[in-house]
């Protein structure tokens, strides 16, 4: 028997519940970071590995645009690339992240090289790019809806970093402050687009599965970070404390 389609309100509620249950704000590494209990080496490892994810977001969005036939959708979506890449000489989330790297004592060129990224981080991030490149548009777009839950974690991060770490200042936390304004506009458009077009139960389940997958991509990165730098099992080829310092 074919399952009945969910109502728009029910689908939205189920999407939001995924964040309640699965978003990585609940990961113990974030609790450790925001409460000031991370060592500087753990903070540096987080900055290095999270940079890889940040740097690939515009590549993910470019992959999405390459298969998008609707020019109106392309016009709206391409602002995401500018948000991360910035202009030719200024701005952008990637530049702001490298300011954070500099603030925690890392050479930005070393961080940008990606040499110290853990294998598990690479696998998780590349899996996300492939998902967005290959899956149907509803699923590809729904995967980005983790941004619904991001403002709360950015707010907690700004407060926690400023309260507990000497490197934290308006420059080093500027990435998170900018995302407080950028993410909501992306969410408003994408959520409505998915809710408007995911009308069959199959498409609705695809959207829910895509968002679940994305939460797992984010969670897996933190699992690897904890195993490598909190538990002390740094994998071969990954950054080791003392490397890439200013």
From TrEMBL:
It holds the Pfam family TENA_THI-4. GO terms for molecular function: pyrroloquinoline-quinone synthase activity. The keyword Disulfide bond does not apply. It is an enzyme of class 1 (oxidoreductase). GO terms for biological process: pyrroloquinoline quinone biosynthetic process. Residues 13-223 form the Thiaminase-2/PQQC domain. Its EC number is 1.3.3.11. Gene3D superfamilies: Heme oxygenase-like. It catalyses: 6-(2-amino-2-carboxyethyl)-7,8-dioxo-1,2,3,4,7,8-hexahydroquinoline-2,4-dicarboxylate + 3 O2 = pyrroloquinoline quinone + 2 H2O2 + 2 H2O + H(+). Pathway: Cofactor biosynthesis; pyrroloquinoline quinone biosynthesis. The keyword Oxidoreductase applies. Keywords: Oxidoreductase, PQQ biosynthesis. Belongs to the PqqC family. Ring cyclization and eight-electron oxidation of 3a-(2-amino-2-carboxyethyl)-4,5-dioxo-4,5,6,7,8,9-hexahydroquinoline-7,9-dicarboxylic-acid to PQQ. This is Pyrroloquinoline-quinone synthase. It comes from Gemmobacter fulvus.
């Amino acid at each position: 028997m074919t399952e009945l389609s969910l109502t728009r309100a029910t689908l939205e509620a189920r999407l939001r519940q995924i964040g309640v249950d699965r978003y990585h704000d609940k990961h113990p590494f974030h609790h450790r970071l925001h409460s000031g209990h991370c060592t500087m080496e753990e903070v540096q490892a987080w900055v290095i590995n999270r940079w890889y994810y940040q740097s690939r977001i515009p590549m993910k969005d470019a992959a999405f645009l390459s298969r998008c036939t609707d020019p109106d959708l392309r016009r709206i979506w391409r602002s995401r690339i500018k948000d991360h890449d910035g202009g030719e000489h200024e701005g952008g989330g990637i530049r702001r992240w490298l300011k954070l790297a500099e603030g925690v004592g890392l050479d930005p060129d070393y961080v940008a090289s990606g040499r110290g990224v853990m294998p598990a981080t690479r696998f998780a991030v590349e899996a996300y790019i492939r998902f967005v490149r290959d899956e149907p548009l509803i699923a590809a777009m729904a995967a980005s809806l983790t941004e619904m839950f991001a403002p709360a974690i950015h707010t907690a991060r700004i407060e926690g970093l400023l309260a507990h770490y000497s490197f934290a200042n308006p420059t080093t936390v500027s990435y998170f402050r900018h995302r407080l304004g950028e993410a909501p506009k992306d969410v408003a458009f994408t959520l409505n687009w998915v809710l408007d077009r995911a009308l069959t139960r199959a498409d609705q389940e695809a959207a829910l599965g895509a968002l679940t997958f994305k939460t797992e991509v984010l969670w897996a990165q933190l699992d690897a970070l904890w195993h490598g730098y909190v538990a002390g099992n740094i994998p071969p080829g990954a950054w080791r404390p003392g490397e890439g310092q200013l």
